Amino acid sequence: MSKVGHIKVYCHLIVNNIKYFLTYHFQFYNCPAMYHERQRLQFCALHVLNNLFQAEVFSKPELDDICYSLNPDATINPHKSMFGWGNYDVNVLTMALQLKDYQFIWFDKRKDLNLLDLATIYGIVINKFYKPKCLGLEIPIKRRHWLAVRKIDENFYNLDSKLDVPEYIGNDEHLIKFLKFELAVSTTELFIVVSNSVPEDSWMKVDAG
């Protein structure tokens, strides 16, 4: 390649980097105001609920009460941490959402994500493994973590409580790419949050194939 060719390639890379920088910062500084709870102990399920509803809708005592109602006679309740640190399971999330007239639906990963009718879906919840850290170092154990995704104004955001701030995802197409990336890990599970007013199974488009 000639010297002029090298200069053109170099200039092209500079322009692309500037475009990326400006686009990212425009999205960050112009994103809508959002409610975003940060991670405390093992209260990710509580954070998921409040981040989904964009307000402090649930509290620890309320989720604990749900645990006791699910298993009132247990000496050690199986739906939460025995130490009172959270770690609520899928049954607690399901019942909490039912109290607000929402369904919590497990998504079969064998289905095509493009069949999701995103216009009828209130929010998305992901359950995945993560490695906890102590003093900045990863501990060689895995724990389950809940995180919420919601459309706010015209774009989707990752409202994971482990993030310092909500993460911009983008439009419908960007969301599908984000979900495909997350579900590439076989142990990750996806749940759909839908209002009870939405007709049964209408959150999935009809597969023309």
UniProtKB/TrEMBL annotation:
<keyword id="KW-0833">Ubl conjugation pathway</keyword>
<dbReference type="GO" id="GO:0006508">
    <property type="term" value="P:proteolysis"/>
</dbReference>
<dbReference type="GO" id="GO:0004843">
    <property type="term" value="F:cysteine-type deubiquitinase activity"/>
</dbReference>
<dbReference type="Pfam" id="PF02099">
    <property type="entry name" value="Josephin"/>
</dbReference>
<dbReference type="InterPro" id="IPR006155">
    <property type="entry name" value="Josephin"/>
</dbReference>
<dbReference type="InterPro" id="IPR040053">
    <property type="entry name" value="JOSD1/2"/>
</dbReference>
<dbReference type="GO" id="GO:0016579">
    <property type="term" value="P:protein deubiquitination"/>
</dbReference>
<keyword id="KW-0645">Protease</keyword>
<protein>
    <recommendedName>
        <fullName>ubiquitinyl hydrolase 1</fullName>
        <ecNumber>3.4.19.12</ecNumber>
    </recommendedName>
</protein>
<keyword id="KW-0378">Hydrolase</keyword>
